[in-house]
Design goal:
Length: about 450
């Protein structure tokens, strides 16, 4: 899919700051030829592909929000705070224009977008019509944004208007070209902060820990710690890692499974492919895996770890602390059998697909690419879709799904998710909003 941001022809508006006036014109934002700026103009009583705005506010917003747009995932839960929304909603470009209700958020590998039609009864003269959601590669997003910002800078140079945008964008490009500085900015974004908004000592603490547990791991941990006090959240997670756990050793290795393709597979495809390889390697075929067989995959002494008794403390993250010999301390945070089996399977999948340099394997509620393929692996490993369909035998009633979930040792929602993701149940079966033109969080 291809993202394009264009504004042509340039027009001179009046009664505003020079950089606004000289960069005005009809703006079109489209993905694969579908205009997300398509609107009904009440003044002209016509439907248009483009919207008449100034490009300068949008370019300035894209430049100032670049790090958070590029790296910060959707917030956990169904709420987004004002800081997150200002960094991810195009409407934050401001300057009094009626911008499309368009949201961008990255999971680390794909840039997801949501285009939301505006309310026809809101009394505004422009009503945006396109409802859509999807994703593009981060490379395509970067190319489109880079081209648009440079287009605006070139326009300002052509009319000899110096602005802050050129210096700001040059600074972003220089930071992107410096690996260490880019990672610093990435961590700020994952923690939910704009550049230089958070104490440098906090970011340095994450960087320091990353040298021990793995650089890609600290990125995952940072997204979990996104809060008003990320250092406190990090200390809590460090305490979890240093605390009690279930000692074992991962018996299944990457070498046994062979090469698992990554790109261009989507996270759910990657997770399922890995799950199929793992089941094939241990000879599961279509059978359900019981607690004992599951525990043996990490050489756990006692299969009762899935049944309790459970620690009453509520942990922010599930974790496997792994050494170079695949010995691991496993900390499960769920308090029910199905949840603990699923979380263990997530950690197993992370072990099989992550770098050997990663000494912490985190299972979190965040919406990063790593957590997505963990969940996809766990669902397909414990409850493979073909075996689930055979068990259901065309009976998709609630009772049948509940019985099948119990058979495979997963939650009813996991079984439902498998059916939804493969097209056997509608999205609304999970209670999710099937409307393609809806925000990914409550407003």
């Amino acid at each position: 899919m291809t993202l394009q941001l264009t504004i042509e022809p340039w027009e001179d508006a009046s009664n505003d700051a020079p950089e606004i006036c000289r960069t005005s014109g009809p703006l079109t934002i489209e993905i694969d030829g579908k205009p997300l700026t398509r609107n009904l103009d009440d003044w002209s009583q016509s439907v248009k592909r483009s919207t008449r705005v100034s490009a300068y506010p949008l370019a300035a917003w894209l430049a100032s929000s670049w790090w958070r747009l590029r790296y910060e995932p959707l917030p956990v839960g169904n709420r987004a705070n004002s800081s997150w929304r200002m960094a991810h909603e195009v409407a934050a470009s401001g300057y009094g224009y009626l911008w499309p209700q368009l949201v961008f958020s990255c999971d680390g590998e794909r840039m997801h977008y949501w285009s939301i039609p505006t309310d026809a009864n809101d009394g505004q003269p422009v009503h945006y019509l396109t409802g859509a959601r999807g994703s593009i590669s981060t490379k395509e997003f970067e190319q489109a944004v880079d081209s648009f910002i440079q287009l605006v800078i070139d326009r300002l140079d052509a009319v000899q208007l110096p602005t802050e945008l050129k210096g700001l964008w040059q600074e972003v490009l220089e930071e992107r070209a410096d690996a260490d500085l880019a990672h610093y900015r990435k961590l700020e974004a994952l923690l939910g902060y704009d550049p230089d908004e958070i104490d440098a000592a906090v970011v340095e603490r994450f960087i320091q820990l990353g040298t021990t547990i793995g650089r890609s791991v600290i990125d995952e941990v940072a997204s979990v710690c996104a809060s008003a006090d990320p250092l406190h959240a990090l200390n809590d997670i460090d305490a979890i890692a240093q605390g009690r756990g279930i000692e074992g050793r991962f018996a299944l290795t990457q070498q046994q499974l062979g090469t698992i393709p990554s790109d261009p597979l989507r996270p759910w495809e990657r997770g399922r492919t890995l799950a199929h390889a793992a089941r094939r390697t241990i000879g599961l075929n279509a059978h359900a895996i019981d607690d004992r067989a599951l525990s043996e995959l990490a050489e756990l002494a006692d299969a009762s770890v899935f049944n309790g008794p459970f620690d009453s403390a509520r942990l922010s993250i599930g974790l496997a602390v792994r050494d170079e010999d695949n010995k691991a301390k496993i900390i499960l945070r769920k308090h029910n059998r199905a949840g603990r089996r699923f979380e263990f399977a997530r950690l197993l999948g992370d072990h099989l697909l992550s770098s050997q340099q990663d000494h912490w394997l985190p299972a979190a509620d965040t919406k990063t690419i790593r957590q997505k393929w963990q969940r996809a692996f766990a669902a397909e490993f414990l409850c493979p879709i073909e075996a689930l369909l055979a068990r259901l035998d065309d009976d998709l009633s609630d009772d049948a799904i509940e019985e099948a979930a119990d058979h495979f040792g997963v939650s009813e929602r996991t079984a439902q998710s498998q059916l939804v993701n493969h097209g056997y149940l509608p999205v609304c079966a999970l209670g999710d909003n099937p409307n393609t033109g809806a925000y990914p969080y409550r407003i």
